[in-house]
Amino acid sequence: MAFAGRWETETQEGYDAFCKVLGIPDDVIERGRDYKLITEVTQDGKDFTWTLLYPANAKVTNKFTIGKEADMETIGGKKFKATVQMEGGKLSVTFPNYHHTSEISGGKLIETSKAGSVVLKRISKKI
Fold first, then answer.
1. 3 state DSSP class of 67
2. Per-residue model confidence as pLDDT tens digits over 63-109
3. pTM, 2 dp
4. Which InterPro entries is this protein grouped with (predicted)?
5. CATH superfamily ID and name for 3-124
């Protein structure tokens, strides 16, 4: 149950480049650059509810079970099917345009998203 809790972004690296690769408009990138994203996670064994709270009260909630295909949604509203895997304590999932991993290390939530050679790394603290 290491992922369960409420997390707030402390640092992020590669934000601008990652957003540009995904085609996010410059004004949206600018508004989100210094925003402290809140991630809320509930975990019951292999069942997760993962909610991201963005600026302007936008939020995305994805519910999934490790190893089973689930209906997912991006912040842009794109719906897709994906299977979240757990490998060595890391959650791993492929979104339409990038691959994402999440892990707990040193009491922090570390999320890494890769789109080709562009990497976004976000570190969040539990609040």
1. coil
2. 999 999 999 987 667 889 999 999 999 999 988 788 999 999 999 99
3. 0.87
4. Calycin, Fatty_acid-bd, ILBP
5. Calycin beta-barrel core domain (2.40.128.20)
